[in-house]
Amino acid sequence: MVKTHPGPQMHFRDARDLHGPHAGQRLSSDSLALLDRLARCADRLKLLDLPVEAILAPQDVK
Amino acid sequence: MTRMARCFDRIDTLNPILRALSFVDGHNARAAVAAAQADLVGGKTEPLLGLPIVVKDNIDVSGMPTGYGAAAAFRTHPTRDAALVTALRRAGAIILGKSNMFEFAYGMAHPDVGDTRNPLDPSRSAGGSSGGSAAAVAAGFAFAALGTDTGGSVRLPAAYCGIVGMKPSHGLLSMNGVFPLSPTLDHAGPLAASVHDVHLLMSALTGLSSPGAAPRIGTIAVLDDYLHHPQIDPGVRSSLDAACDRLASEGFRVRHIPAGTLPDPVLVVETSLLVMLPEASIALEQIEAAHTHQLTAQTRAQIAEGFAVPSVWNLRAQQFRHHLHGQMAKALHEVDALLLPTVPTFPPKSAADVGSDDDLSQMLCLAPFNLTGQPAITLPFKTHGSVFSAGLQLVGRFGEDAALLDIARGIEIALQ
User: Fold this and answer.
1) Considering chain A, what is the average pLDDT of its residues?
2) CB–CB of A50 and B320 under 8 A?
3) pTM of structure
4) B175 and B98 belong to one structural domain
5) B389 in the same domain as B271
6) The total number of structural domains that make up chain B
7) Can you count the helices (H) and strands (E) in chain A?
8) Do B198 and B248 fall within a single domain?
9) Which residues of A touch B312 (CB under 8 A)?
C-alpha cells in the first residue's frame, strides 16, 4: 500500500510558514484566518480528484 | 458649450467631492480639441474623434504621471503610451486625465488618494479598484474610461455607479504599459454610459467590427447558483428577476441553469485567491522592497499572504480553473449568454466594505470569469423608484466578444 501525503491540511499558526522576503514575519490574525480558509479550499479542490493534465498554462485552458 | 467644456465644468465642480480623477491634463486636452475640430472640418472620420477619455492610474500615458493609487514615492513619469492608449489616440480620442484607484489595484484606497465617492449618491462608495474610472463616466467627466479587472475591478464599480463596464476575453486587450497585478487574471477593459459606447471603444482597441444593428431577441441562461445564492441581496435578486421578466416579454428566451449545476460559488472565489495572491506577491515584491512603509497595512498583509500560499494549492487551483471553464462552456450550450448579478449588493458606504479579506462576497459573481477568461459585461438595470441600479452581468464564450456585445446591446434596448 502506498502511503500518501495527507495533503495541504496545514494551518498557519506561526511565522515559520512564511517564505521569501517575509520569512520570520508574523502574520496578523486576519491573514491567518484567510490562509486557514484557503487551506480548506485546497482540501476541497483535492477531493474533486481533477486530472493532473488539467494543470495547464492559461492560454491552453481556453 | 462643447462636450469638452462641459466635461471641464463638471470636473471643476464635482471632482473635489468625488475624487474620481488624480490628474487632469487641461492644457493639452484643450489643444487636442482644437486640432480635432480642424480634423472634423477637414473631413476626418476617426470613430472616437474628439471624444474625451480618462485612463486608470495604473496605465501609462506619456506626459502624465502614473500614480497607481499609491503614495507619492511610487509615482512614475512614463515617456511612452501604453498600447491601449496608443490605439485610442489613433482612433481620435483625447486623453483627458488619469482616474483614481485602489492602491496598486489590490488593497484599499490609500489615505493620500482617498476613496472615490459615488456620483449617484456621494455618501456611498464608487467601489474599486477602477472606482475613479466608473465615477468619471457616471459624473459626465468623460465619454468613456479605461480600467483594469483582476477580480472584478471594472465590473464592480461600473455596477455601483450605474454604467456599463466590460472585461473582454483574457489576452484580447494588450497589457503592454499596464502595471501587472496577477498576469493570468489581469484584464484591461472599457467603461462607458452604454453598450454601444463600450462597443465603440472595443472596436478602436481591437479592430472588432463597429456596433451594428442590435439583435431583437436571443436566448439567455440565468445562473441560479449565483442569482439565488444566500449572499445576494433580496433587492438585487428581485431587480434581476424583474429584468428577466421584461426580457421574456420582449421575446427573449430565458432559461435557468438550476442551482447545484455549477461548482459552489464560494469555492470558486476562494480558488481565485489561490491564483491571485501568489501572483500579486511576485508582482509587488520589488515595490514593497523599495518603499515598504509607504504601502498601506492591508496591501502589505496581502503580499505576505501570497508568499504563504504553498505552490501545491496554486496548482490545484489551476486544475480547477480548467474544470470550471468546461462547466461554463456546458452552461453556454445553445444559449447566447449567461446572466447573473454583477455584485450582490447596492453600493456600500465605504470602500472598506468592498473586498476585505474576510468578506469575499463582492467578488462572488465576478472572479469566476477572471479564472476562465471569458468575456463579461455589466449593464445597469433600475427598478421604478430606486436610486441605484442592480448590475446585470452577461457572460459569453471565450473569444466571442463581438457576439457578447451584440446580445448585450439587444438586452440593453429591451430593458429601456
Assistant:
1) 70
2) yes
3) 0.94
4) yes
5) no
6) 3
7) 2, 0
8) no
9) 8, 42
